[in-house]
Each structure stands twice: as C-alpha cells, then as structure tokens.
Design brief:
The complex is a heterodimer of chains A (214) and B (72).
Chain A lengths: L1 E8 L15 E4 L4 H11 L8 E4 L4 H9 L5 E4 L3 H7 L3 E9 L2 E3 L5 H20 L1 H4 L12 H4 L21 H13 L9 H4 L2 H12 L3
Parallel strand pairs in A: 2-3, 2-4
Antiparallel strand pairs in A: 1-4, 1-5
Chain B lengths: L1 E5 L4 H12 L2 H4 L2 E5 L24 H4 L5 E3 L1
Parallel strand pairs in B: 1-2
Classes of the chains: A alpha/beta (214), B alpha+beta (72).
Chain lengths: 214, 72
C-alpha cells in the first residue's frame, strides 16, 4: 500500500506554506516512515540547517493531540487523523506519499509469500473498485477508542489520499536513493549493497509464483 | 492451509492486508495469515529516541521469531 503523510499545522498557526516552518519545531515519530516523509517534505522547502524537529509519539492520534496542545508547531499525520485534523480546522501545508515495504528474514518461503502477494493483489483490486466502502477500516485498531475518528463518516475521507497498487518487486534505484538519502542525514552508515538489502531470489520466485498467469 | 504470522498493521499502511484478512482473500489463496500481538514489553515510546538513534517497535516480534514479516 502507498502511505499518505501530511505535514499539518494547527488552525491558529501563522504557517501556510512549508517554507514558513524554517527554524520551527516539527514533531516527528523518529524511526518510522512518517518521520522520514516529514524530513523529505521539510528539506524540499527549506535548507537542512533550517529543519528543526523533536521526538514525538508514534501514535498519530496522540501526536495530533500534542500538536493541538502546542507541544510543537507542526507534525506529520496519516489517515484517519489527517481527516480529523482538517475537520478541526488544521491546515495541510504539504502532502506526500511513500511505499510501505515488507521486511522478512532470509528463510521466508517464496510459496507463502506468493500466497500473501496474491491475497494483497485481490484486496487492492476490490478496494480500488470502491474505496468509500472500505474507509471504515480506518476507524479500527488504534483509532477504535478515538471519539474524533469515530465521528467521521465515509464521506469525510478524501479518497485521493487512499492509494493502493498491486505489489511489485522493489525497484533497485528507489532502494538505493532511499539508502543514500538516509545516509546523507546520518541515519544509516555504509554503502548501499542491493544483495544485502533485497533477497532477489525469494522476491523473484514469489512474484513468479504469484503472478505467473498474467 | 499454510500459516504465516506477521506483525500487527494499521489501515494507513496496510488497508489491503486488513481487507484481505476480513474478506477471506488469503484463505482463498491457501494462506492462514495471523497477526501477532505486541506485549507491553515490546512497546517503547519513540520519544525515547533521537533522529539518528531512533526507538522503533517494528521488527521486534520478527527478531524474536514470533512473526515472519513486518512493515518497515
């Protein structure tokens, strides 16, 4: 699935464009894709030395609550809290999308992974045929106890932020760019080596098994 | 039916997986997909970490052999 991440400011913020977040503290859930998406949105707008962040909680609902309490001037949210924030008058000053990537050990059985890929591909087709029907899933899990999320109706969701694509092998270029970008921030060290990061044998076997009939 | 356990997922990153579980699409492919649960000992706050030395809960169940895959 493709994750939507939005850089959000409270309703009373003086920030309207991401450039105005220079030297202002942005709360990020360090170590997670959303945080890296936040860094990428910020550095697309301001010089790196003007990017100012602090550690924020992982739970997007709690991060949103911290934003509204004024603990930081902006944060990055995912659905359904992007929708909650918009309904509360918050502004999205930047939005981006990134791939959620599955990680497994070297002992992953290609046949099992192929069955997983087929199931996911079937689900993607069903959801894309009628996204509105499936937005109720955003009200489950972490969001089950959140009254603001529970108050959302299916019509509240912007379906353009819900993007799904059938699984494909990981593009080597994109993996390398992501590695190099993280290394440039000092988040990882060493040189990208595709053979240690992507098990092409298992990946190829699984995709062939899953989608051979295409 | 072959079983596989993954770490827990959320709709914002895995709506497809949740729908596939709900509508029996994995079972139709011969896969009994299970989602592991995190215990309190698996949950550390990201606020304990820093940008260059983050604290993340992803992969802990995998590292203990309790899940085959997790979303990175």
């Amino acid at each position: 699935m493709i994750v939507c991440a939005a850089l959000v400011v409270p309703p009373d913020s003086s920030v309207y464009v991401p450039q105005e977040l220079a030297h202002r503290t942005v709360g990020l859930d360090y170590g997670n894709g959303t945080a890296y998406a936040g860094l990428q949105m910020l550095e697309g707008a301001v010089p790196r030395e003007a990017v100012s962040t602090c550690a924020a909680v992982l739970h997007p609902g709690e991060r949103y609550a911290a934003l509204m309490r004024g603990e930081f001037e902006a944060t990055v949210l995912q659905e359904p809290w992007i929708t909650v924030a918009e309904k509360a008058g918050c502004r999205l000053v930047s939005t981006t999308f990134f791939h959620g990537t599955w990680v497994a050990g070297p002992d992953l059985d290609p046949a099992l992974y192929a069955a997983f890929l087929r199931g996911v591909a079937r689900a993607v087709r069903r959801i894309n045929a009628d996204k509105r029907r499936y937005v109720s899933h955003f009200k489950e899990g972490w969001a089950a106890d959140d009254p603001e999320v529970q108050a959302l109706t299916p019509d509240d969701f912007d379906l353009g932020r819900i993007q799904l694509r059938e699984p494909t092998p990981i593009p080597e270029d994109e993996a390398r760019w992501a590695w190099d970008w993280m290394a440039s921030w000092g988040l990882i060290h060493g040189t990208f080596d595709v053979t240690t990061q992507i098990n092409r044998k298992v990946e190829r076997e699984a995709h062939e098994l899953a989608f051979a009939a295409r | 039916m072959n079983a596989m356990t993954i770490e827990p997922v959320s709709a914002f990153s895995s709506l497809d997986v949740l729908v596939a579980v709900d509508e029996g699409l994995f079972r139709a492919e011969g896969l009994d997909l299970r989602m592991a649960s995190r215990e309190s000992r698996d949950l550390r706050s990201t606020t304990e970490g820093t940008l260059s030395s983050p604290v993340t809960n992803q992969g802990r169940l995998h590292d203990r052999g309790e899940a085959t895959m997790f979303q990175g």
